[in-house]
């Protein structure tokens, strides 16, 4: 029997589960199942209404995918609002969901979702409070300029089965107006666009794609280059393919007034602590007048000085090894060879003295 075809695509992933579900089931199985069914009906309807798709379910857990990051976030906010109303209506049987949202590359098999992008969404869900939403930095970068959305930085989080720390943000609305959420912060008189908030849909997709693969191996970097051969991060991806991966560290300081755009910020975050000169150079090639260009050039200067110092240290070590090899010799030719190679060396005076000695022939 032929194996099901495996598809890869970029998606916004919403993972949700019930806080304290095992405790609720232990106390009242039938009542808990009835409450879960009522809430699942609300959740499923909202997902479908925001152009999403329920991909995986298991017990109290739900995994949904959206083609739009904005759709995923608006849906999650409305789910929490609707479920809160159900809890208010039945204070004796409250059931609070936790929601995590990530954007990244996923694998699809028989309609189910798999991959690191899904795992990150599930871990973000576990970081969320009951009734709350926790999102990844990729989601925050897509929506950071939406008026009325507040992202509370939770910092780097080490989570189960994810090799690298993930940056997490608690998401909430600045006020209770749903209309404000759907309106980007645009100049007066400018009409908002629908769909992803980026004015360039492809740029938003590229940034999300890069966020999902930048710390991966050559195969994952190759998927980026296949999709975006001339993309913003193409030079950096090729550099990383040809050598060891640099480490990504969050939190950037020293921004100029106005701040860098999401693509530049992600690029700099990817290379700023790299030990490879080629990666810093790739940033300067892409952003010669970028917000971090001065710092990048300073890093290059420092790296060059460190390299010169290292070479000098290597040269000193070679001379020392040469001298140690001949120091106890009585062969004049060896000392002459040393002086020829190191006429002003550390041991030149001793070598000349040894040549004048009767012990050396």
Relevant terms:
49% helix, 14 helices, 361 residues, single chain, alpha+beta, Alpha-Beta Plaits, 8 strands, elongated
Write a structural description:
The protein is an alpha+beta fold and 361 residues long. It has a domain at 7-199: Alpha-Beta Plaits. Helix content is 49%, strand content 17%. The chain is built from 14 helices and 8 strands. The chain has helices spanning 21-27, 29-49, 69-89, 116-127, 137-143, 178-181, 201-213, 218-227, 234-241, 262-271, 277-286, 293-326, 332-341, 348-356; strands at 7-18, 52-58, 61-66, 97-109, 112-114, 133-136, 149-157, 166-173. β2 and β3 (61-66) form a beta hairpin. The chain is elongated, with a radius of gyration of 30 Å. Mean pLDDT is 75; it is low at 176-201 and 244-259.
What's the short story on this structure?
This protein has 14 helices and 8 strands. The chain is of the alpha+beta class.
CATH H level, superfamily name of the domain at 7-199 = Nucleotide cyclase, GGDEF domain
Tell me the number of strands.
8
For the largest beta-sheet, the strand count, sense and barrel status come to:
8 strands, mixed
Class per helix and strand makeup: alpha+beta
- Would you identify the CATH architecture of the domain at 7-199? 2-Layer Sandwich
- End-to-end C-alpha gap: 85 Å
How many whole angstroms does the radius of gyration measure? 30 Å
Fill in the CATH topology of the domain at 7-199.
Alpha-Beta Plaits
Beta-strand percentage? 15-25%
The gross shape turns out to be elongated
Number of helices: 14
Order of helices and strands: EHHEEHEEHEHEEHHHHHHHHH
CATH class of the domain at 7-199: Alpha Beta
Which residue ranges are poorly predicted, with pLDDT under 50 across at least 5 consecutive positions? 176-201, 244-259
The residue fraction in helices comes out at 40-55%
């Amino acid at each position: 029997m032929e194996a099901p075809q495996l598809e890869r695509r970029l998606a916004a992933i919403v993972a949700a589960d019930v806080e304290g579900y095992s405790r609720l089931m232990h106390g009242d199985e039938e009542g808990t199942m009835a409450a879960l069914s009522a809430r699942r009906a609300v959740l499923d309807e909202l997902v479908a209404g925001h152009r999403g798709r329920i991909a995986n379910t298991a017990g109290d857990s739900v995994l949904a995918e959206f083609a739009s990051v904005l759709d995923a976030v608006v849906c999650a906010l409305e789910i929490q609002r609707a479920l809160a109303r159900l809890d208010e209506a039945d204070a004796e049987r409250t059931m609070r969901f936790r929601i995590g949202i990530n954007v990244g590359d996923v694998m699809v098999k028989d309609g189910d979702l798999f991959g690191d992008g899904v795992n990150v969404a599930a871990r973000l869900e576990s970081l969320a409070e009951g009734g709350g939403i926790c999102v990844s930095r990729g989601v925050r970068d897509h929506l950071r300029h939406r008026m009325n959305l507040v992202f509370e930085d939770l910092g780097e989080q080490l989570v189960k089965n994810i090799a690298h720390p993930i940056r997490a943000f608690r998401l909430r609305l600045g006020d209770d107006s749903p209309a404000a959420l759907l309106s980007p912060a645009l100049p007066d008189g400018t009409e908002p666009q629908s769909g992803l908030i980026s004015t360039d849909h492809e740029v938003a997709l590229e940034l999300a794609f890069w966020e999902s693969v930048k710390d991966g191996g050559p195969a994952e970097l190759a998927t980026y280059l296949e999709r975006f051969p001339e993309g913003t991060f193409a030079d950096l991806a090729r550099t990383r393919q040809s050598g060891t991966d640099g480490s990504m560290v969050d939190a950037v300081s020293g921004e100029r007034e106005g701040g860098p755009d999401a693509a530049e910020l992600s690029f700099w975050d990817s290379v700023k602590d790299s030990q490879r000169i080629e990666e810093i150079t790739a940033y300067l090639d892409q952003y010669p007048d970028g917000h971090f260009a001065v710092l990048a050039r300073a890093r290059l200067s420092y790296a060059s000085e460190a390299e010169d110092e290292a070479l000098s240290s290597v040269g000193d070590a070679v001379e020392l090894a040469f001298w140690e090899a001949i120091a106890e010799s009585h062969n004049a030719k060896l000392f002459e060879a040393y002086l020829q190679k190191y006429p002003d060396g550390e041991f030149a005076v001793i070598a000349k003295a040894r040549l004048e000695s009767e012990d050396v022939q």
